Amino acid sequence: MINLRIVIFLLITLFCFDIYSFPIPKNGEVKFDVVRKNKVIGSHEITFTENNDFLLVETNIDIKVKVLFVTAYEFAHQSTETWINGNFTEIVAHSDFEDEREYFIKGQDNNDSFLASGMDGNLELDKNILPSNFWNIDVLKQKEIFDTQKGVARTIDVEELGYEEIKVNKENIKCNKFILNASSNPKDKGPFPEYTLWYDENNELMKFQFKDEGRGKKIITIIRSN
């Protein structure tokens, strides 16, 4: 009986590992502060809703920069990813930039391809493409990803820099550090920024940052707040 229980436990563990290639928080929610010049200017939240073999991953980003009580910059993004049996199958997203750029993004698995639409109109992409949600560390293993904020495909180059200890919520956390660069699109306003990302030993995203090329080249840091 004991051996049987062990076998069942191992099978369940292996089955769950196969389905979810990224960690899901116990409370189904992860929150980040968006920081610029040591001030919190927004929030980046991801929620996970499981229903049998279905998983919904919802991302909400809300950024607002004020100068002398006047809003100088705003950015909002919402996306809902659908995963079935561990496979990315659909996305619906909306991004609203400050300069009247607004994108409605859609994508769906379609037999042997992934059909999407966004800044470049309709696209037919690789069936196994992943969304650019950095919570999923498997994104860093890809050659091409789907930019969920603009609805375009980008080739990426990733460099692993080894372990580094960072402070998150007053706690020192040992993390694996990566640098990610992605291809630019002719419709981008400036070059695609270089990202630095830190994942803890459970592959949970703890922090990432990039240089805001269009606003005085200030570093924007997104760091865990829960």
Q: Report the sheet-strand fraction.
A: over 45%
Q: How many extended strands? A: 15
Largest sheet: 15 strands, mixed
Give the uncertain stretches in residue-range form. 1-18
Overall tally of domains: 1
Mean residue pLDDT: 89
Number of helices: 1
User: Can you tell me the overall shape?
Assistant: globular
Helix and strand composition category: mainly beta
Largest sheet, spatial ordering of strands: 8-7-6-5-4-3-2-1-15-14-13-12-11-10-9
N-to-C order of helices and strands: HEEEEEEEEEEEEEEE
| CATH architecture term | Clam
**Percentage of residues assigned to helices:** under 10%
CATH topology: outer membrane lipoprotein receptor (LolB), chain A
Distance from N terminus to C terminus (CA atoms, Å) equals: 41 Å
CATH class: Mainly Beta
Radius of gyration: 19 Å
List the helices and strands and how they pair.
Layout: H1 2-19, E1 29-36, E2 39-51, E3 54-67, E4 70-84, E5 87-96, E6 102-110, E7 113-118, E8 121-126, E9 130-131, E10 144-147, E11 152-168, E12 171-182, E13 195-200, E14 205-212, E15 218-224
